[in-house]
Design goal:
This protein is of the alpha+beta class and 597 residues long. The chain has eleven helices and 29 strands. Strand 16 and strand 17 (384-386) form a beta hairpin.
């Protein structure tokens, strides 16, 4: 009899556990790239209709004053960790400076540990080499580009769990396809799906049907600085947001079709202000600015099962709040002991009547710092603005609110000392520019993730070799014409052993045959640059002319150099030429090392 009762009790307990497991909410997080607060019809833009993104707000909660960072990678780091980005070592957007320190724990770590399926599909921008890679930060699978900027939006080469593959179609459509596939495969278990889109970040490239909808649109809502607005940039940005809205709709529709929409938390926000001068609700500043227009973002959160529809949270909030909020809503324990800068917003989202103390949020970029309270913003020059009475930051009120200005200046000074400067590398390279290569070595050789890609972005050109553009993120090495030219990557080899070596290159056909050498310490491998491979630059991908700072891209060919031994520890990986029979060696997109042992 006791055995029967025990069996019944065990069965009931197991059933309760299964029910509890099935009741865990799924999470889908959409992150736009360079979309301004004013790029959505929900926020009053009459030049575009974004019904799918708007539907998240209508069926959920709007964070009315939600603040991110002035540029991309810092916002992503703050979302992932719940901590201000300087604490995690993120101090730039390229050349390794965008990497999130390995001792930081992420929101994906928390959901992964709680048994969730985790996947990221799109732009990562917090480190490329494992374990900086998303597959080392809590995501079981990844598809997209780890760089902050990608130069190909049509039929793009993208990464699939460490391997580059050539895709077909527009980059946002392709990444959405992968996100939907992930949802389909994990519909019977809780999942955390992160969809960081690449648009409307430049290059200005969008499918023709979307451009045709906007190309002749009159600009009826102008930027706060109308003389600086380029109408075609506005039109293309809105066309890209429209494409994004349709892709958000595809995901939302699939959640409905699978019957899991009600118990899925859906979040939509952007990573900074608009990337061009266009309508942004009258706010001052754009991307790169620490003023309101550079750091205020849309943020909509829907969970039909629990959050009240069509409500607005008026308290200020930020990207640092998403980790504590999402883990709290889902009943998931965060990973790690480091103190968070963010707050759990769930009581506000759930409409609970609670005491909510005022707070100060800080924004920084390029040495500038601004501070935001519920009522005031202190800009990077020390001007105080009443954001309730003067949301456009037109008239400083330092004299009228002298004590507030004094207090916020003291808070900024304290934050600069204890957050910004306390976590800043003081290496001499840090003083050169935000495009200097980060002094932290690039990790190589993890058995659980044996492929390490070393793009030109993360290397240092020397001896006349240059980058293909001023913006390093999606660049390649050019101007390699002499034996003095070389490329250097600082490595930290985790596992000693044999590595397969390949180089993605182009080379004029008549110049093929240079003898090149890749070395690290006493180890080296040599090979010939052949055959010649000299495809033309893409000229038919862009809707509008590409900014001069961004590289025109082309297809690269893979050159196999064979096997090379690497010893454990730090060392410089150097690529140089020993013989140059023609006028040119080659252009170099990346070196890839694959652990064989």
């Amino acid at each position: 009899m006791l055995r029967i009762l025990f069996t019944i009790a065990a069965s009931l307990l197991m059933g309760a556990q299964v029910r509890a497991e099935s009741e865990k909410p799924n999470v889908v997080v959409f992150l736009a790239d360079d979309a301004g607060w004013g790029d959505y019809s929900q926020n009053g833009n009459h030049q575009i209709q974004t019904p799918n993104i708007d539907s998240i707000a209508k069926a959920g909660v709007t964070l009315d004053r939600y603040f991110v960072c002035p540029v991309c990678s810092p916002t992503r780091a703050e979302f992932l960790t719940g901590r201000y980005h300087p604490r995690g070592g993120v101090r730039g957007v390229s050349t390794g400076q965008e990497r999130l320190n390995l001792d930081e724990n992420t929101v994906a770590d928390a959901f992964n540990k709680a048994g969730y399926a985790t996947g990221a599909f799109g732009k990562w921008h917090n480190g490329s080499q494992y374990p900086y890679h998303p597959c080392g930060r809590g995501f079981a699978e990844y598809f997209g580009h780890t760089a902050g900027h990608w130069g190909e939006y049509f039929d793009a080469p993208l990464e699939e769990n460490g391997k580059m593959i050539r895709t077909e179609g527009y980059i946002v459509d392709v990444c959405t396809d992968r996100a939907i596939d992930f949802i389909n495969r994990n519909k019977s278990q809780p999942f955390f799906c992160y969809v960081p889109y690449s648009t409307p970040h430049s290059p200005w490239a969008v499918p023709e049907e979307y451009w045709n909808e906007f190309k002749d649109m009159p600009i009826e809502q102008a930027s706060t600085e109308p003389k600086r607005e380029e109408p075609d940039h506005t039109r293309c940005a809105l066309a890209m947001v429209k494409n994004q809205d349709n892709n958000v709709g595809r995901v939302l529709n699939r959640l409905e079709e699978l019957g899991i929409a009600e118990n899925t938390i859906v979040v939509y926000f952007s990573d900074n202000g608009p990337n061009s001068w266009r309508w942004n609700g009258g706010m001052k500043g754009r991307k790169g600015s620490t003023d309101e227009g550079g750091v205020r973002s849309t943020c909509y959160i829907r969970w039909s099962k629990k959050l009240p529809a069509g409500t607005t949270v008026t308290q200020i909030a930020g990207a640092i709040d998403l980790l504590p909020t999402l883990t709290s809503l889902a009943g998931v324990e965060r990973v790690g002991e480091k103190p968070l800068d963010g707050r759990d917003l769930s009581p506000l989202l759930l409409g609970k009547s609670i005491e909510w103390s005022d707070r100060t949020l800080f924004s920084t970029w390029a040495g500038r710092i601004s501070a935001r309270t519920q009522q005031f913003r202190l800009d990077h020059q020390g001007n105080l603005y009443d954001m309730v009475a003067d949301p456009g930051q037109t008239t400083p009120v330092n004299k009228q609110h002298a004590e507030t200005a004094k207090d916020l200046k003291a808070q900024v000074a304290d934050w600069k000392t204890n957050v910004l400067n306390a976590n800043r590398e003081t290496d001499s390279k840090d003083k050169k520019s935000r495009n200097s290569v980060d002094p932290r070595p690039l990790p190589v050789g993890y058995r659980e993730f044996p492929i390490t890609m070393l793009p030109a972005r993360d290397g240092e050109p020397e001896g006349g070799v240059e980058r293909s553009s001023r913006a390093p993120n999606c660049s390649y090495f050019v101007n390699w014409t002499s034996e003095e030219g070389r490329m250097v990557w600082l490595l930290d080899v985790h596992t000693a052993g044999r590595y397969d070596v390949t180089i993605d290159y182009t080379c004029p056909v008549d110049d093929a045959g240079s003898l090149i050498e890749l070395s690290c310490g006493k180890n080296r491998v040599q090979g010939r640059v052949e055959p010649g491979w000299d495809p033309p630059l893409y000229t038919n991908q862009d809707t509008l002319p590409r900014p001069p700072a961004e590289s025109q891209m082309k297809p690269f060919r893979t050159l196999s150099l064979g096997e090379m031994k690497l010893d454990q520890g730090e060392g410089e990986l150097v690529l140089k030429a020993l013989e140059i029979p023609g006028d040119y060696v080659m252009d170099v997109r990346r070196v890839t090392l694959t652990l064989l042992d």
